[in-house]
Automatic annotation (TrEMBL):
InterPro entries: FAD-bd, FAD/NAD-bd_sf, RIFMO-like. This is Monooxygenase. It comes from the Bacteria. GO terms for molecular function: FAD binding; oxidoreductase activity, acting on paired donors, with incorporation or reduction of molecular oxygen, NAD(P)H as one donor, and incorporation of one atom of oxygen. It comes from Methylobacterium currus. It holds the Pfam family Rng_hyd_C. Gene3D superfamilies: 3.30.70.2450, 3.40.30.120, FAD/NAD(P)-binding domain. Keywords: FAD, Flavoprotein, Monooxygenase, Oxidoreductase. Its cofactor is FAD. The lineage of its organism: Bacteria, Pseudomonadati, Pseudomonadota, Alphaproteobacteria, Hyphomicrobiales.
């Protein structure tokens, strides 16, 4: 095998071009940082796989300018229908579930293959092409940079970026090369997943069928009319070699009360729950499934990987461009690994409870969920809590070294609360550090912000601002990813913060 040296390496190499790697690439492209993105596959994925795009992801996409395109290509799920014993026992509305919490107060289904093609297209508009069919074969690093050996079509080349990002999935070659452990386990249950056409026409609702010995979900895949079917493989069939959809058809149709007219894709899988021991080793980082995998409960996996990419992307861009101190990168692991560990623990508890074969699981599926959930849905606080958690707008970085201060109910590390009127998310499209003030700020704030090179976004004081938790006249330093870094600083504190992190420094 011949080896070709790479004469001029970009500052960043991204390994893996799924949703996580593509989002990281888009972040770097928008910040004007050179990079390469490679993937050993020959092109974007062709299966629908991850289906749910959460509100926080759409907020990130709004910053990049294509949230509306994602929403237009997906299916808003208007309600969830609960079935038990062959009958519908409840229907709860998902319309405007998070009204007032986010510009995207709904649940969106958007097939991952469509999603990836859109991201690849957005990257192409930025003048960047994914290098398909290119895999990582070796990796080493020292204090000055990374040495990565890439293979394509029988030819090897050496790439020497300053930083490398492993976004290459659960079987990450980057993670293995770095010797980072991936502790966790695998659930015993075998699941099936199928994309199918169901008699009776397209159904936009999420249908959840609960049974003493079974569990089935059906949700829309795409506007063309396909439905996603997910459920437990009966214990008697888990060891059958070459298991097909036809083996499961009678049980699926009886449990869900449907008739399947055609199947486009079928697979079985075991669910894993793992979090890497570290998300960073020197100049190398892990993001997405390379760093964490967990049950599909709540549609969190892909969205969490995208959150990793956004968090890492702006920090890499600021450090590489010299607009912030390299120490900024030290905040990536503590911010994201803490959430990953919490998420895996939460989804693990929910998954075991709902799928458990014992009496407790049966009671939960046949008694508690069908009757307790509709009752709780009548309380606005319960709906808000569910949306805030599942949509990921509740994710906060209070313990981050980047987070400081508190003004009103908003503290450093919070996602900036959204106001619909005036829309305080509009300035976030700049992907830059900025200062927000709601009401009349202190007289010297504008001068201090200007001296530090920070745009000042002043919003009128409203009752909505009060309800969102802002303090009248207080200043909030907002990070490029829309999280509050510093809340309510006294005179001089803003300059001290920027000096500590090198914000505004020139390359």
């Amino acid at each position: 095998m011949s080896t070709t040296p790479q004469p001029v390496a970009p500052p960043v190499l991204i390994v893996g071009a799924g949703p996580t790697g593509l989002n990281l690439a888009l972040q770097l492209a928008r910040h004007g940082v050179r990079f390469r993105i490679v993937d050993q596959a020959e092109g974007p994925g062709t299966a629908s796989r991850a289906m749910v795009v959460q509100a926080r992801t759409l907020e990130f996409y709004r910053q990049l300018g294509f949230a509306d395109a994602v929403v237009a290509g997906g299916v808003m799920i208007p309600a969830v229908r609960l079935r038990e014993g062959g009958e519908e026992v409840a229907c709860v509305s998902f319309r405007d579930l998070g009204a007032g919490e986010s510009p995207y107060p709904f649940v969106l289904a958007y097939a991952q293959d469509d999603h990836e093609r859109l991201l690849v297209g957005q990257l192409a508009r930025a003048g960047v092409a994914v290098e398909w069919g290119t895999g990582l074969t070796a990796l080493s690093q020292d204090g000055s940079g990374v040495r990565a050996t890439l293979s394509r079509g029988g030819t090897e080349e050496v790439c020497t970026p300053a930083y490398l990002c492993g976004c290459d999935g659960a079987h990450s070659r980057v993670r293995e090369a770095l010797g980072i452990g991936f502790p966790g386990g695998t659930y015993d249950q075998l699941f099936y997943v199928a994309d199918a056409r169901v008699a009776g026409g397209f159904r936009e609702e999420l249908s959840v069928t609960l049974g003493a010995h079974g569990l089935g979900l059906m949700l829309p895949v795409r506007l063309s009319g396909m439905q996603r079917l997910i459920g437990l493989v009966p214990a008697a069939l888990t060891s059958r070699p070459g298991l097909t959809f036809e083996d499961l058809r009678p049980g699926i149709e009886a449990l869900m009360g449907i008739r399947v007219e055609g199947v486009n894709w079928f697979s079985t899988y075991h669910v894993h729950h793992r979090v890497a021991e570290r998300f960073r080793a020197g100049r190398c980082f892990l993001a997405g499934d390379a760093g964490h995998i967990h049950s599909p409960a709540g549609g969190q996996g892909m969205n969490t990987g995208i959150g990793d990419a956004v968090n890492l992307g702006w920090k890499l861009a600021e450090a590489v461009a010299g607009r912030a101190a390299p120490a900024l990168l030290d905040s990536y692991e503590p911010e994201r690994i803490a959430f990953a560990r919490s998420l895996v623990a939460t989804t693990d508890r929910a998954f075991r409870a709902v799928t458990g074969p014992g009496l407790g699981g049966q009671v939960l599926r046949t008694v508690l969920l069908p009757h307790l959930l509709p009752a709780l849905w009548g309380f606005a606080a319960a709906r808000k809590a569910l949306f805030d958690t599942v949509s990921q707008v509740r994710i906060a970085y209070h313990d981050s070294p980047l987070s400081a201060g508190r003004a009103g109910r908003v503290q450093g590390g919070d996602r900036l609360p959204w106001l619909g009127d005036p829309d305080n998310f509009v300035p976030l499209a700049s992907l830059s550090w900025q200062v927000h003030v709601y009401g009349a700020g202190r007289p010297d704030l504008a001068e201090e912000a200007d001296r530090l090179g920070l745009p000042l976004q002043a919003f009128r004081w409203t009752e909505a601002a009060r309800e969102a938790g802002f303090a009248e006249g207080a200043a909030y330093l907002v990070r490029p990813d829309g999280y509050v870094a510093l809340a309510g600083p006294e005179p001089g504190a803003l300059a001290d913060y920027c000096g500590r992190w090198g914000i505004g420094a020139k390359a």
